[in-house]
Structure formats: C-alpha cells, structure tokens
Design a protein that fits this description.
mainly alpha; 0% strand; globular; membrane
Length: 123
C-alpha cells in the first residue's frame, strides 16, 4: 500500500470515528429521549439543529468520499479491516471526552483489534 492509499484509508477511518464522537456530543446536548408520536417532531428538530450532530453528518459525507477514493486504490480485503481502528480511536476518545470507562476487558479487546489489523495489513 503506497502512502497516498494509506492516507485515504486512515483519513476515512478518522473521519468516521470523528463523526461518531460528534453524534454522541450532539445527543448528549439533547439528553436522553425516546421518540413517541407526540415528541418526534420536537426531538427531531432539536437533534437536527445541534451543531455537533450536523458536523458529525458532514464528517460522514467527507469520509464516504475519501473512503471511495481509498477503495479505488486498495483491496477491500485490506481496507475494510482498517475500519476497526475506529473502535480503538473512539474508545480512547470517549474515555477522554465523555468520561467513559476503559475496563481491562475493553483494553484487551483493543489489543486484539490492533493485532488483527497488523496481521491483515501485512498479508
């Protein structure tokens, strides 16, 4: 994999991870909710007007474009497993930004993911 291809794949992964974090920040601003017939429009509007949520959706759009460029250069059997790096990024970012717990079990899982990505990338 050449540097430009790697950049496209990693940029797609990073943008996808950022989108998830921004969506979480947007829903945190709204708070816990449930959609019912009575509140679907007010809650939908509150969600649709949250700047972090809008930014998260924009990250998804850009990540899709970058991902398609990356897929045009890299075998999907190599590129797709790289998406799992987003789990690693999000676990640490959620711990740092939102105070989510990083248990030993999660850290072991992250280690397994990283080992799997290395094995696939070297194949």
């Amino acid at each position: 994999m050449n540097p430009i291809s790697l950049f496209c794949i990693l940029a797609g992964v990073t943008l996808n991870a950022a989108a998830q974090l921004l969506l979480k920040a947007g829903t945190n601003a709204v708070g816990h909710f449930e959609f019912t017939r009575a509140n679907i429009l007010p809650i939908g509007w509150r969600l649709a007007t949250q700047p972090p949520l809008i930014a998260g959706l924009a990250c998804y759009v850009v990540s899709l474009v970058v991902w398609v460029v990356g897929l045009s250069r890299v075998d999907v059997s190599i590129a797709y497993p790289m998406l799992s790096l987003g789990y690693v990024v999000n676990a640490f970012a959620a711990w740092y930004l939102f105070g989510e717990v990083l248990s030993v079990q999660k850290l072991v899982g992250i280690g397994i993911i990283l080992l799997g990505v290395v094995i696939v990338a070297r194949s």
